[in-house]
Amino acid sequence: MADPRMVKLAEVMVNYSLNVQPGEWVSIRGDYLVAAPFFQELYRQIILAGGHPTPFLYSNAFQEIKLKNATSEQLEWIAPTAKLRVEHVSADIFIFANENTRMLTNVDNNKQAALQTALRDLNATITERAAEGSMRWAIAPYPCQAFAQDANMSLSEYEDFVYKATFADQDDPVKQWQQVHDKQAKLVDWLAGKKELRIQSPSCDVSLSIEGRKFINADGHVNMPDGEIFTGPVEDSAEGWVNFTYPAIRLGREVEGIRLEFKKGKVVKASAQKNEEFLLAQIDIDEGARRVGELGIGTNFGITQFTKSMLFDEKIGGTFHMALGKSYPQTGGVNKSAIHWDMLCDIRTSSQITVDGQLFYQDGEFKI
Question: What is the pTM of this model?
Fold first, then answer.
């Protein structure tokens, strides 16, 4: 018998997050071998909503084979089906589940960079269509053994964690997400029209311009779980430094002790205590990779444990994250890059955020 919380999460993803309408083409992507029950339930819910679901199977095992054996020509080739999907689907849902989160750890940096560069235009199409409203997309978590292990939990403990964070264990999850929206709306409304934001803590002192930019109220319509507000800072504005207090995980590599220094919006010095070579390779992938594409502030104080999964971790109340690389156009950001790499910093003690000189946040509490 299917876990009723999983069924409820699928209902929320289809009817709230994506708001699937009759006749819409909806793609479902993910690792079917890991997440078959959720795949099937999402398919069922899309059918019940009147949509046309089409599965696209994805696996890091395929990525590993390609990255270790493909020629340059094969790395650059984009499947016509992939192009058709991103140009024409009404909605897309990606199931966040994995067999082995470290499967790509030993893959050559240059080959990973070549594949990311090849996918840049495809990803840009998704970003542009989402910004103009012609395509909706969402990421949905499925509790799996690999993520449970990374989070230092048993699978049953991780299931409880995931379904609690998504409100799938509640009678009315949508009502809960609407309440999240209302709370965050107050923050977003206060920030509208402001010009400069500065974050100060023992781990950072960085300022960015938010003039003319829009903060987005992340309330479960794209990421699940959610609980953040974010924007795309002015591209040449970042000044200062950040020592990111959590590991930044990307493409199977765990990069620890990252320190970035910014001048005129650009990373001018970068270092890491672990996997520094990978960090430097990623931020040199193209011109936009050394600029801040996103600044996000976590508002979900119900997520208290670092899990090594940014889908959850970037929402932790009392943290902020910066993403190097691609901006989201709906924020007003214009930075373009093959990467969008979120890095997380704790600001729950001896920390503050000021906006145009006014205290916005201090030590785990919003002050407006």
Answer: 0.92
